[in-house]
Amino acid sequence: MSITPRQKQLIQQSFSKVEPIADDAALIFYRKLFEYDPNLRELFKGSMKQQGQKLMATLKVAVNTLDNLDKLVPVLQQLAIKHVDYGVKVDDYTPVGNALLFALKTGLGNEFTDEVKEAWRDLYIVVADVMRSAAYPNYSKSTYTNRKQYAK
């Protein structure tokens, strides 16, 4: 797993600007996620406010462990296996990543530069790959293609 020192810095700096608007960012994220794939809404049984808080707490853990990504792996693996129990499919990681980038872009405005976007995208690719590998034994990054169609 590899994120450059510059990317770590950009992710940490940008997350510190999103954290004060965490509730709004989570709301933006879930609205966009359900816009991309309305079927995902049925996976969420509880309070969306609490779900948003869990999302932001998980992001905070990820951001705070960027200097030791190997420490993050077991956390992501456990989370992925739990998500299978909730009904998450391998293809569902795609709209989640896109909704995350959208929420960050919306929350950061002009500060969501191409470089910041690339840093977050690269981090999400690492996270999603670790989680997919843990949750779906037949998943292979080199051969996987998401063929599901999403709303734009």
Helical content stands at 55-70%
Report the end-to-end length measured between terminal Cα atoms.
Answer: 30 Å
C-alpha Rg (nearest Å): 15 Å
Put simply, the count of helices is 6
Mean pLDDT rating: 94
What's the overall geometry?
A: globular
Q: How many beta-strand segments?
A: 0
Q: How would you name the oligomeric state of the polypeptide chains in this document?
A: single chain
Structural category is mainly alpha
**Most strands sheet:** none
**Regions with pLDDT < 50 over 5+ consecutive residues?**
none
- Give the SSE order as H and E letters: HHHHHH
Q: Estimate what percentage of residues fall within beta strands.
A: under 5%
In short, what is this structure?
This protein is an all-alpha fold and about 150 residues long. It is globular.
Verbal overview:
The protein has helices spanning 5-18, 22-36, 48-64, 69-86, 93-108, 114-135. With 152 residues, it is an all-alpha fold. Helix 2 (22-36) packs across helix 3 and helix 2 packs across helix 5 (93-108).
Strand and helix layout:
Elements: H1 5-18, H2 22-36, H3 48-64, H4 69-86, H5 93-108, H6 114-135
Keywords:
mainly alpha; 152 residues; 0% strand; globular
